[in-house]
UniProtKB/TrEMBL annotation:
Protein's name according to its UniProt entry: DUF4333 domain-containing protein
Domain DUF4333: start-end pairs: 34-102
Native source species: Streptomyces olivaceiscleroticus
Secretion signal span: 1-17
Pfam families, alphabetized: DUF4333 (PF14230)
InterPro entries, alphabetized: DUF4333
Length: 116
């Protein structure tokens, strides 16, 4: 009986460790589509995805609105500065390109805790 309990505890520890590892390494970004001769993601699409995809699936909060300075060039390490509205509090948000594959642009969101 003691061995069964110890085996169950070991399985539970392994399962918990795997869950924490998956949650801590899950991507916190989105995939957008670039278009046009200049190969950019339009400002409106960047703002829309920031509202829809920020923090999914790991954060409970999502911005009510995001306003960006302009379009996002589809080139790795490019970024655009934005302002995100969280329940009436405006916070700076940077949206950065982490990868480009044709027209598919992978981005990451970073929000500073200070108010804008």
């Amino acid at each position: 009986m003691k061995r069964i309990v110890m085996a169950l505890v070991a399985v539970a520890v392994v399962a918990l460790t795997a869950t924490v590892l998956v949650l801590n390494t899950a991507p916190d970004g989105a995939v957008l589509t670039a278009s046009g001769d200049t190969h950019v993601v339009p400002r409106a699409a960047v703002e829309e995805h920031a509202v829809e995809d920020y923090g999914r699936p790991l954060r409970d909060e999502a911005p009510d609105a995001v306003n960006c300075a302009g379009d996002l060039r589809a080139k790795k390490a490019e970024s655009v500065e934005c302002t995100a509205d969280f329940d009436g509090k405006r916070k700076p948000m940077t949206i950065s390109v982490t990868g480009v594959d044709g027209d598919r642009v992978t981005v990451d969101f970073a929000v500073l805790n200070k108010s804008a």
